[in-house]
Amino acid sequence: MIDFIAYWLVRGVAAFFLILPIEAGLAIARVIGWLAAFTQIRVALAYANIKNAFPGRFTGRQIRRIVRQNYMNMLQNLVEMFWFPRMTKEFAEKYVTIPRMDRYFSCKEAGEGTALLTAHFGNWEYLNIRTCFLGIPIYVLVRDQKFPKLNGYLTRLRESHGSVMIRNKGAELREIMKAIKKNEMIGFLGDQQGGKNGVPVRFFARMTTSPAGPIQIPLRTGARAIPVFIVREHGPYHTVHVEPELILERSGDEEKDVEKYTQAYMNVLEQFISKYPDQWVWLHKRWKHNWTKRVVILSDGKAGHVNQSKAVFDLLKKIQETNPRFEFQSKVIEIRYRSPFHKAVFPMFAFLAMPFIQGRLDWLRGWFEAGSLKEFGTAACDIVISCGSSVLPLNYMLKRECLAKNIVIMKPSLPFSLFRADLNLVPEHDSGVKESEQVVLTHVTPSLIQVDQIKVAGEALRRELNLDHHRIVSVFLGGKTKGYDFSKSRFDEFLKSLNQAMEKNQFELLMTTSRRTGAQFENELKEKYAKQNRVSLLVIANEHNPEGIVTKMMGASDVLVVTEDSVSMISEGVASGKSVIVLRLAKSGLAQKHYRFQEKLASQGILRIATPENFSEILEKELNHPRNRTVVDDTQKIIERLQRL
Predict the structure, then answer these.
(1) Which H or E element spans position 52?
(2) What pLDDT is attached to residue 629?
(3) Alpha helices in 111-253, H assignment, sequence order
(4) What region, left, alpha or beta, does residue 401 occupy, with left being phi > 0 and alpha being psi -120 to 50 degrees?
(5) Strands (E), 564-621
(6) What does the alpha-carbon distance between residue 397 and residue 380 come to, in Å, rounded to a whole number?
């Protein structure tokens, strides 16, 4: 029934356009195409395809214009297709010029058969009609449409001047071989994706697949292969570009030859699309099988958050170990708001703007620093990763802009918890979250720490500091964060306790601050420890922060002491497999989830919690009566979910 209705509907539309002059019909088609672009049918896909193919080349407004022109061109193609039966040689010569017609005839004269390699570009259907008027009918490889009656009507239009449509299946493919032996021309649409097992090609800088047939058939039969594209100049006027022949040299390895010359064809196609981006059909999932994954990491400027995102990216790259075809590229974009006020208000604006944001990132102009917005606005990606509430809205915006997969680390805050992430990594201590297909609960936050690497780095630091046979304790001091800072009295009490422990237990001390550590605490450390014999290393991060120093200190140490304010730092310590002591230097100030996180790990025997009052006692236990060290590793669990993306 649907087939019957569709058939008569198309016939009725065709009859209407056939009573109009071709110019008038095309003008109406352009209006309908312009309106059709507002229906949103595959518009988002077309937009994302263009954005990802030309990163940074076009603004959102320009891409939306290209998509509208794409729709207008397709509607004009349909009107011209309705006209096929009425077309004459004079009509075709008037509206379709072929500057290098000699290339057509030279192939025909060679007597070897010719494969015309074209694409869903311009009015590709017109190619076979125009070639027929040169006295060279084309055998065209096509796929059957869903509806038989409508498919039959379209086939009659295509064959109205002598071309022959050959179904892309079984027995009918033999007709292609027969036609080549008779020195006929064969038309191939070779621009679609080739499925998971298609020919690997690089197309617009991403590894994807193409069908093998357009190159494989001429390689096997000896036919010539010529790329041919038709470009709509304006209205009913077209130009056929007959490109130089692809010289197919057979090496004896057919698979490699097919890859080589399919890539050569795709290179020519890419040049034409780049020159006429509105004339290629962007509405299909051309990169459905895409082995190049461009990953954008959104940074809020906090090292711990960025390191967690980078750790997830490193886990993504491990997929290459089981599937070497994949290639991963990363880019870190730091998001800088214009002011704290903009940062506070932006989530509500973002929530309201989210449904309409694709192609309208210029709406964000007043919210961010210009350099930050430019990087974000021109980013093209397949995956976006972020950690931290201030960049969460932008994670979802970039997901919608590029139709990317998104990974959110930590429990999303309202109102963005109402949106579903493709993958959400949430530490178990965050309440109110259940594991599901999209949610992975982890013991600790993702970490860049790798046990083998920190061991090597630690051994190097021990040699550098001449501490090969010493016991070492490393202290990692955080500092001020939202609603939290060290208590001066508790800090002083800790230093006193630390000094006593050093005297009694004879260990070497390595210590580093963070960029959040207050100046008064830094000055006190420099005053007390700059020349202390047993303090082998003191790093003031706001003055000098050697690259990789945290990794080296972890690897060199027997015990790690980490202040309570950094979930990331505690997670890295636990991931290292070392003895970990969490030091509490403020009576309150952190969110309850921080304490739940610490206490859960402590209850499992993974770390100890200390205060300035009992620090010396707990450190002595860790040094002299070490427990079995447990490496908490969520790696495999996360990788399994990443593979499903």
Answers:
(1) helix 43-53
(2) 62
(3) 124-132, 148-158, 174-181, 213-221
(4) alpha
(5) 579-583, 608-610
(6) 12
Find the radius of gyration of the CA atoms of the chain.
33
Q: Are 364 and 377 in contact (CB under 8 A)?
A: yes
Neighbours of 506 (CB within 10 A): 11
pTM: 0.86
Which of 590, 582, 587 minimizes the C-alpha distance to 622? 582
Under DSSP, is residue 404 helix (H, G, I), strand (E, B) or coil? coil
- Is residue 383 within 8 Å of 405, Cβ to Cβ? yes
Chain position carrying tokens 């179904």: 167
How many Å apart are CA 286 and CA 573, to the nearest integer?
A: 44
Taking the C-alpha atoms of residue 572 and residue 560, their distance in angstroms, rounded to an integer, is 10
Can you read off the two tokens belonging to residue 509?
């001390």
In DSSP terms, 234 is beta-bridged to: 237
Report the SS3 class of residue 186: strand
CA dihedral of 379, 380, 385, 391, whole degrees rounded to 10: 30
Nearest to 485 by CA among 516, 454, 507, 512: 516
489, two tokens = 């009295």
Which residues does 326 contact at the CB level (< 8 Å), separation at least 6? 291, 292, 293, 319, 320
Which secondary structure element, helix H or strand E, spans residue 2, and what is its range?
A: helix 2-18
- CA distances (Å), 537 to each of 211, 303, 534, in order? 61, 21, 9
Are the C-beta atoms of 560 and 576 separated by less than 8 Å?
yes
Structure letter (DSSP) for residue 438: S
The amino acid sitting at 469 is H
CA atoms within 13 A on the CB side of 490: 16
3-state SS assignment for residue 441: strand
**CB neighbours of 262 closer than 8 A, spacing ≥ 6?**
190, 199, 201, 210, 212, 214, 215
Who contacts 208 (Cβ-Cβ below 8 Å, separation ≥6)? 193, 200, 201, 202, 286, 287, 289, 290, 291, 292
Has residue 292 got a pLDDT over 70?
yes
Model confidence band, residue 437 (pLDDT cutoffs 50, 70, 90): confident
DSSP assignments along 395-461, one per residue: HHHHHHHHT-EEEEESPPPTTGGGSPPSEEEEETTSTT----SSEEEESS------HHHHHHHHHHH
Burial class (CB in 10 A: 0-12, 13-18, 19+), 170: exposed
CA angle 67, 402, 300 (to 5 degrees): 140
Helices and strands, counts by H and E, the chain: 24, 21
Supply 92's token pair. 């075709």
Which sign does the torsion angle of CA 562, 565, 566, 571 carry? positive
Q: Which of 329, 295, 289 is nearest to 399 (CA)?
A: 295
523 neighbors 629 (Cβ within 8 angstroms)? no
Is the bond preceding residue 415 a cis peptide, omega within 30 degrees? yes
Q: Which residues are CB-neighbours of 62 under 8 A, at least 6 positions away? A: none
Q: Encode pLDDT of 165-192 as tens digits.
A: 887 666 566 778 888 888 888 989 989 9
The Cα 261–Cα 267 span in angstroms is 10
Q: What digits encode the pLDDT tens for the residues 566-607?
A: 888 888 888 888 889 999 988 667 888 888 888 888 888 888
> How far apart are the C-alpha atoms of 193 and 209, rounded to whole Å?
5
Q: Check: CB of residue 242 under 8 Å from CB of residue 98.
A: yes
Count how many Cα atoms sit within 13 Å of the Cα of residue 375 in the half-sphere of its side chain. 15
List the structure tokens of 515.
Answer: 């960029």
